[in-house]
Amino acid sequence: MSLLALYDVPAPAKLNLFLHVVGRRADGYHLLRSLFVPIDWADRLHFERRGDARLARHDLAAALPSDDLCLHAARALQQASGTSLGADISIDKRVPWGAGLGGGSSDAASTLLALNRLWDLRWPRERLAAIGVALGADVPFFLGAGPALVEGIGERLTPVALAGAEYLVVKPEAALATRDVFTHPLLARHVAPGTATGAPTSAPAGASGEAAILAGSFEDNAVLHPGYGRNDLQPSAEALCPEVAEAARWLEARFGASCMSGSGSAVFARVDELGGMAASPETVAQALDDLRRVHPRWTARRCRSLPEHPLAHW
Q1: Which residues are catalytic?
Q2: DSSP labels, the chain
């Protein structure tokens, strides 16, 4: 029997445990090397099948742009598959936009996975990924199974097994546009065209899991914090948005280190027993209370990394 609806489909956010800009292609796209991990901060989407080919989005929380990435994904799958079906898509938006947490890309990926089921297309994940990469650089990751080393412009993924970790994620009120961060002079001065072609990273011989990824990715990093490292986009982001620097310094003062995620304004610190300054739940809760008193319009949340994407087996 064909499905008529799918409810409470998760679209998890992600953290970039590091992000290195390793070059720039002739067409202007930057080549990246980054370690992505999904976290338990997620949007919730609901899908109801329509027989009239119409695609409609309904906002259950924060209002989204009239033609967002979720609708782009639905339209692309509809056109590529030739289906005569449509869908009502309702979004309970919980992950803040402009944060570098991949919320919009995750919504798009979950939309592709859900409509693949709702419309009974039965496409393999690889076929969906071909649509996803045209929608945005982060979409292929959210169509994957879980934590991954991401390279190129986001299209090359190497799955990795990572132990679970807890992070305090802080999103200042300000949001950042990806284009502004990538075109900032602070970044442009340090990345020459064609610096790298984006060959896959290989881990050191004998290393495995998280240790191998971190060792292979931080050879040129002077400061290595347990669990995460530097983001090459952070100096540009801090120059564009002083709140990013303020949030980073706030976390560093309390938890020993911090890192920006992606190209947005959110920063995070590891707060479990393997972090630089282990923090009890009570310590983190007090820090959150203090932050909300000083910056009531900022968003902050204690998150846990996920060993796999919640839709990994779809």
Answers
A1: 14, 138
A2: ----EEEEEEEEEEEEEEEEEEEE-TTSPEEEEEEEEEEEEEEEEEEEEESS--EEEEESSS---TT-HHHHHHHHHHHHHT---EEEEEEE--SPTTSSS-HHHHHHHHHHHHHHHHTT----HHHHHHHHHHH-TTHHHHTSSS-EEEEETTTEEEE------EEEEEE-S----HHHHHTSHHHHTT--BTS---PPP-PPTT--HHHHHHHHH-TT-S--BTTB--BTTHHHHHHH-HHHHHHHHHHHHHHS--EE-TTSS-EEEE-STTSSS---HHHHHHHHHHHHHH-TTSEEEEEEB-SS-TTTT-
Q: Which CATH class is domain 5-159?
A: alpha beta
Ordered by start, the domain boundaries in the chain are 5-159, 166-304
Is-same-fold flag (5-159; 166-304)?
no
- Note the pLDDT tens digit of each residue in 216-234: 444 443 333 455 788 999 9
Architecture of domain 166-304: 2-Layer Sandwich (3.30)
* CB neighbour list of residue 193: distance below 8 Å, 6 or more residues apart: 23, 24, 25, 26
Phi, psi for residue 111 in degrees, rounded to 5: -65, -45
Question: Please, which residues bridge with residue 289 across strands?
Answer: none
Q: For residue range 221-279, list pLDDT tens digits in order.
A: 333 345 578 899 999 999 999 999 999 999 999 998 999 999 989 999 999 866 555 67
Q: Which two tokens stand for residue 42?
A: 């997620």
Query: Whole-angstrom Cα distance, residue 13 to residue 309?
Result: 10
